[in-house]
Batch of 2 targets.
Target 1
Amino acid sequence: MRVLAAMSGGVDSAVAAARAAEAGHEVTGIHLALSRNPASYRSGARGCCTIEDSNDARRAADVIGIPFYVWDLSDRFHEDVVEDFMDEYAAGRTPNPCLRCNEKIKFAAVLDRALGLGFDAVATGHYAQLRTGADGLIEMHRAVDDGKDQSYVLGVLDQDQLAHSLFPLGDSRKEDVRREAAARGLLVADKPDSHDICFVADGDNAGWLREKLGEKAPNHGGDIVDEASGDVLGRHEGTYGFTIGQRKGLRIGRPAPDGKPRFVLDIEPVSGTVTVGPRERLAVDRLAGIRPRWCGTVPGRLEGTVQLRAHGEEHRAVVTTDGDEVAIELLDPAYGIAPGQAAVIYDGTRVVGSATIASTQRVPADA
């Protein structure tokens, strides 16, 4: 096959490209230039959008012996990922930009261009496994390495995208990938993994949002209110600085009557009100999902599990679908779940699909 290997400049994508080439595929490496100004994104080894990362990817391609190109997708990335991130926070929701990047950039814009150029598949360094099911459809399963499994952020991929994807690392553990990289002479063998959000230069999400939204946000400033008493405990500069379940950085000063910490329970972007209360009030047992993305056959009713955060725990759940609406009953309550997050649905290790959480229903206080 003719394979386009997306090379971020990290160890995982480099080894994935090397394995694809070793398997006999005709591999071409590409690095995605996602920043209009590379200096404004992550520096050093903390991200995947810098000039250093591009150079690391090029050197890895040279060692592997494959052609290498840089594709500028910065405008598309800014529109589909960065602006979406800002819009979601301004609306009081908590998005995951990595899912949006996979959905809109790596497995849409890149894959579409690759197929148009005559490539058969795109290979990445994601930790997930692909198998052909009994019905002939391509199934995506969790990776062998539970600690590195990335099937959650790939839960937005549909059947056509999976049919043109390769995940060469799905059957490997991270320590083995690093050893293999060193044995292959890849200089990125010991390069640290990227963390946090690649386009937030210093990892301070709230500060970045404050700088980008600031006075332009419709919800600039508001009250922090105690749910139980209704008392105003303080003021804030914008709801975009908060997410459901947040405990630190509330700056409300006055302790709760029982001395326990308060958490963000609700965010109202129109009035600017942030409601806080005890941790037990964060428990939710029902979720309403919208904009579902199915990896294969659409389930009518499924007793399986859902994952609500990247590398988060699984929750037993009953999932029912009705057109573009997904109802999720959590048999194991979850805490601190916010609208905008993704609920990725599993049947065992198989990824069934995902939905964006539109609303949650909290466990009654007297339950």
Target 2
Amino acid sequence: MRILAAMSGGVDSAVAAARAVEAGHDVTGVHLALSRAGGTLRTGSRGCCTIEDAMDARRAADMLGIPFYVWDFSERFRDDVIDDFISEYQAGRTPNPCMRCNEKIKFAALLERALELGFDAVCTGHYATLVSTSDGLELHRASDNAKDQSYVLGVLTAEQLAHTYFPLGETPSKALVRAEAAERGLSVAQKPDSHDICFIPDGDTRGWLAEKVGAEQGEILDRNGDVVGSHDGAHAFTVGQRRGLRLGVPAPDGKPRFVLEVRPVTNTVVVGPKEALAIGEISGARHSWAGAAPVSPEFDCDVQIRAHSEPVPARATVAEDGVTVVPDVPLDGVAPGQTAVLYVGTRVLGQFTIDRTVSAVPVDA
């Protein structure tokens, strides 16, 4: 096959490209330039799309003896990921930019261009596996649960899976990938993993949002609507947050309070007891299936609401207006804007963006 290897500059994508070459494929490497800030340099292990990363990707491609290009996707990244991130926060939701990047950039914009240029598939260093069945390809968890990245790939469709290649999915551990990189002479063998939001390299999300959307003082309310404090901008708060609330009125029971809801229209934040973070139902209109759609409109599954959270057994219902999931035990601290990924065993069935949550604890409890 003609393979376009997406090379971020990290060890995973470098080894994935190396394995594609070793498997006999015709491989071309590409690094995506997602920022037009020409002086951007990597800060510690933050970020994944800097000048240093592009140079590391080029060195890996040279070592593998494959053609290498840098493609400027900065405008598309700004429109589909950064602007979406800002607008979601302005709407009081908690977005996942990595999901949007996979959905809109790596497996939409990149794959579209790859197919236009005659490539058969895009290769990445994600830890996930593809299984061929009589119903088509299925997306499954990686063999290494600690590194499993199937959650952030839950947005992929059947058509995208048909042109995707994950060489690392069966690797038992990240340590083995690093050892393999060292054996191959790749300079990124011990490079730290990237983390946090790549377009906020210093990790100060609150400060970055304040600069982008401004800050306006508002009220902090309890679940009964009583004012218990003030804030400098609702966008700076996320559901489940405990620190930095600066409440002027203590809780009657003296226990800490947590952010339960962010209301951007009124610029208010609602706080309450930790128990009120327990969510008994979630639903969302925007959904997709990673392969064949479920046969029945109601089915048992596992639901996962964060990249590294534990899956929870649940009952899902699919209707014209979206997907509703009722977990067997309440979910903790779910916020609208998060992505719920549905699994059946190790298989990724699909995903939806959470629009609505229902607390498992009544207001007067």
